[in-house]
Protein: SDR family NAD(P)-dependent oxidoreductase
Organism: Actinomadura rugatobispora
Amino acid sequence: MSRLQGKIAVITGAASGIGAATARRVAAEGASTVVADLNKDGAAAVAEEITSSGGTATAVGVDLGDTDSVRAMIESTVGAYGGVDVLHNNAAATHLAARRDLAVAEADPAVWDDTMRINVRGAMVAIQAALPHMIARGGGAVINTSSGSGLAGDLRNPAYGASKAALINLTWYVATQYGKQGVRCNAITPGFIVTGASRHSAHGAMQETMLRHHLTPRLGSPEDVAAAVVFLASDEAAFITGQTLGVDGGLLAHQPYVADMRQG
């Protein structure tokens, strides 16, 4: 497992869930890994776990809603390891989506603005700060965690969904504008991923409903997403850019009536 040997990777939202799994996996694949999160204690715990297992990792506190904090994250990476090769924009304002991202008719414009500031502007600033360092090293890989919510409507979380759609569009622009300089940019759209947080927020009946609509015999895990990130960050994906990869168990690959007909 050395597909990222010699690479320097920054993973945001890496104190738990998908980000933590990705940080562990990219480090196991040989990358010097910056574990970045608003929860610096959580990030430090993940970084310690990586180093205890023989990997190389540093924890950095970052507030994706604060431009200076995002830029400092990248500069800290460069100071520690000498550059940036991989940026996984994974962090998101899930606290807003869980409690305050109401239907459009009831939406609070402040929640909309905060969601866009963290989910989209934060990712853009991180890319902006990383680009010169990637180009100086001959190129790099940006992977943006979007969502199935960015591809289809839902009964809730319009701000979150719109922000994730914006990330897909940003992915295209970065791929288009910097591909000739060796920078690739792709997006991942996870389906329902079973994390510590989702186990508490989505009860058993909800998980059963989601599973009926997946084409796989199980729901997703953070490690499923981490595997996709490692592939897209590696040289094996050297000819892949500007793409959106669904890591969703086929959730959006079928007609909406398939689950009902299967039970009928």
Notes: Residues 7 and 255 are 41 Å apart (CA to CA). The chain has a mean pLDDT of 94.
